[in-house]
């Protein structure tokens, strides 16, 4: 048996030697290339910063600049926040950026940017709300008129955040008496705040500031900033709130954010949150999620966006009527929002920020931002299984809340 094996082995030796020689040649070529690249790298970067290796030739390519204004602004931010490009800018300084990245706008981002009319081709034909938004799109700093710096001192389990307008006194009061009642609910601490901007005579609003100041002293739940409170500035309201949250309420575990015309089943929300694991709760963002959507081009629609401003698909986003997220995620959204250009539709903007974080909002059947079927709207038991429904008047909120809280109501 031994001699037979030796004969077989000997018969295959020439083929083995050929394979061995070929393998050795490939290894030698690879070693030579590695040495050559290493020497070239060192010679090209003798004066570079210590510990940072930067190739002598640019290994990245800027994408073609978009003709749409928002997309172009976002491309600029993406370049500025690209860590590879930053390494070249601050490490080697040999990079030459294209002209469109050289920012010639006003040094103060809150000054009107009068480059915009020249960069948006149909600027003069756009609705006034668009012109105003585009002129001040870079401004994110507005003075705070009313603050509640200690409202979260007890580290609430759930923070209810309600977007409101100055004249909506009745809506805020109905919420305070129903689903937004602060204190302890189902053995969990709940805090409510209302977000407001300022009204202007330009928008045909009477001066209600003194009444609002009185309301703030009475209830201690209003947050107000000095900016024009319009539909397109809802995104600004979102950004300012996230900044406030990071400063004054970073220990709140969860946030329910909604409009002042939604009805929220706070008990259902708390019950859902109590059943979450820590891992699931960290990245929580649920609501009535919209997917595969894009900008409306019909000029008569409220959500009209011209091609000169934005092109492309929207990322998945939760309808702005209301959604639920973790406090941890809110802080991350606040940070990443600095890398996303303000967009005139607030819920889409939040979806853009989530996309930057690599997250997708989760659809939950309990969020009905497009209401429920009319035949079920007067059924008390339906509301016990829902988390949020849009829209309801102050009178309807006061009618529905007892259906949620009264134990004698039996629902099978």
TrEMBL record:
Metabolic or biological pathway, per its Swiss-Prot or TrEMBL entry: Protein modification; protein glycosylation
* Membrane topology summary: Single-pass type II membrane protein
Which GO MF terms are attached to this record?
Answer: N-acetyllactosaminide beta-1,3-N-acetylglucosaminyltransferase activity
- Protein name (database record): Hexosyltransferase
Q: Does the keyword Cell inner membrane apply?
A: no
- What family does the Swiss-Prot or TrEMBL record give for this protein? Belongs to the glycosyltransferase 31 family.
Q: Which GO terms describe its biological process?
A: poly-N-acetyllactosamine biosynthetic process; protein O-linked glycosylation
Q: Which GO terms describe its cellular component?
A: Golgi membrane
Q: From what organism does this protein derive?
A: Poecilia formosa
């Amino acid at each position: 048996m031994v001699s037979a094996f030796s004969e077989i082995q000997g018969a295959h030796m020439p083929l083995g030697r050929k394979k061995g020689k070929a393998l050795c040649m490939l290894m030698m070529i690879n070693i030579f290339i590695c040495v050559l690249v290493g020497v070239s790298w060192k010679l090209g970067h003798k004066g570079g910063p210590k510990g940072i290796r930067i190739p002598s030739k640019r290994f990245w390519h800027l994408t073609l600049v978009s003709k749409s204004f928002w997309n172009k602004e976002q491309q600029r931010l993406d370049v500025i926040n690209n860590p590879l490009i930053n390494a070249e800018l601050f490490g080697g300084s040999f990079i030459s950026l294209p002209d469109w990245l050289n920012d010639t706008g006003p040094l103060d981002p809150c000054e009107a940017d009068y480059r915009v009319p020249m960069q948006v081709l149909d600027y003069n034909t756009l609705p006034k709300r668009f012109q105003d938004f585009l002129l001040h799109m870079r401004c994110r700093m507005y003075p705070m008129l009313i603050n509640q710096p200690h409202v979260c001192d007890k580290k609430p389990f759930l923070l209810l955040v309600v977007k409101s307008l100055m004249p909506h006194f009745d809506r805020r009061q109905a919420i305070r008496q129903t689903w937004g009642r602060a204190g302890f609910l189902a053995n969990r601490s709940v805090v409510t705040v209302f977000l407001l901007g300022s009204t202007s005579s330009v928008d045909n609003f009477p001066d209600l500031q003194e009444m609002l100041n009185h309301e703030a002293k009475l209830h201690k739940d209003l947050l107000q900033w000095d900016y024009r409170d319009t539909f397109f500035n809802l995104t600004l309201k979102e950004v300012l709130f996230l900044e406030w949250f990071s400063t004054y309420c970073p220990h709140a575990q969860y946030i329910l954010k909604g409009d002042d015309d939604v009805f929220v089943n706070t008990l259902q929300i708390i019950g859902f949150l109590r059943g979450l694991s820590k891992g699931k709760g960290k990245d929580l963002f649920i609501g009535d999620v919209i997917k595969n959507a894009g900008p409306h081009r019909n000029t008569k629609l409220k959500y009209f966006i011209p091609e000169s401003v934005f092109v492309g698909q929207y990322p998945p986003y939760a309808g702005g009527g209301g959604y639920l997220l973790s406090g941890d995620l809110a802080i991350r959204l606040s940070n990443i929002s600095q890398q996303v250009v303000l967009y005139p539709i607030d819920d889409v903007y939040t979806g853009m920020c989530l996309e930057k974080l690599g997250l997708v909002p989760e659809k939950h059947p309990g969020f009905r931002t497009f209401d429920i079927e009319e035949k079920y709207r007067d059924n008390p038991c339906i509301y016990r299984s829902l988390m949020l429904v849009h829209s309801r008047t102050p009178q309807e909120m006061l009618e529905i809340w007892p259906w949620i809280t009264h134990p004698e109501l039996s629902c099978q």
